[in-house]
């Protein structure tokens, strides 16, 4: 199959900030540069505005305007709230320009900034697809405050037009705070745990995700790299065994990209990586999101 027309264009936006990574390992501030470097491995194969996809067996549109690098946001290292606001504004500017933002974190406090940027740029309701090993539903604690890497989903759900009935999380595993369970029972974001995903597989998971976000006007897709098993992505903010594989990650992004209006990859940590394999995976996820999401469903 040959796709000759690109109907959507994408903005690459870096947010080199890990000031809210108060658990796990810091170092994700270095991820945007590494992911950009790895993207060159994919984009060099572009010829005459097309790229050959071995997954589909045909040519797909990938012209110079498909994925445009807009540089880094104005990170303020000592000021978390200013950095979140600047990041949200960059995402909102991309959406208002009629493009699709692809946000490169940085730690996972930027989940909230990405959702807020889309929310602020549109009038309708916003769904959130959240891939993560962790729930990120913490309200507040002394060590992390209220806008940490553990609070992005909680803060996003407080936005006026982000509704839990259109929110779903995938890849969750192991242990979390009892207060998070209380919030789930009350506010109800849906979950597909890593254990359940292993049982139902890619197609059933995609069906369940799409059924959940149906009815929302816009969809933001947040991808914390630790949803992937550390065997495939060792360069993460924390190692949580038992995650999805790199093949799972690629296929899920391919299937969901046409439905989404924004994408963010967080928690890639080059300081913990092995031969840049995690940055490379993150770059592939971004490129698959753009190429397969160019035609909105």
- Structural class of the secondary structure composition? alpha/beta
How many helical elements? 8
**What would the CATH topology be?**
Arginase, Chain A
Q: Using only CA atoms, what is the Rg?
A: 17 Å
Task: Based on Cα principal axes, name the global outline.
Answer: globular
Strand order of the largest sheet: 4-1-5-10-9-6-7-8
Domains (count): 1
- Helix content estimate: 25-40%
Overall pLDDT score = 96
CATH homologous superfamily annotation:
Ureohydrolase domain
State the total count of DSSP E strands.
10
Strand content: 15-25%
Q: Architecture, according to CATH?
A: 3-Layer(aba) Sandwich
Order of helices and strands: EHEEEHEHEHEHEHEHEH
Query: Biggest sheet, in brief?
Result: 8 strands, parallel
Distance between the termini: 17 Å
Oligomer: single chain
Q: Secondary-structure blueprint of this entry?
A:
Blueprint: E1 10-15, H1 31-43, E2 50-53, E3 58-61, E4 67-72, H2 80-96, E5 100-105, H3 110-121, E6 126-131, H4 152-156, E7 162-172, H5 178-187, E8 190-193, H6 194-213, E9 218-224, H7 246-256, E10 262-266, H8 277-293
Parallel strand pairs: 1-4, 1-5, 5-10, 6-7, 6-9, 7-8, 9-10
Antiparallel strand pairs: 2-3
Structural account:
The protein has helices at 31-43, 80-96, 110-121, 152-156, 178-187, 194-213, 246-256, 277-293, and strands at 10-15, 50-53, 58-61, 67-72, 100-105, 126-131, 162-172, 190-193, 218-224, 262-266. It is α/β, with parallel strands linked by helices and 297 residues long. The protein has one domain (10-293): 3-Layer(aba) Sandwich (Arginase, Chain A). The strands form two sheets. It has an eight-stranded parallel β-sheet, sandwiched between helices.
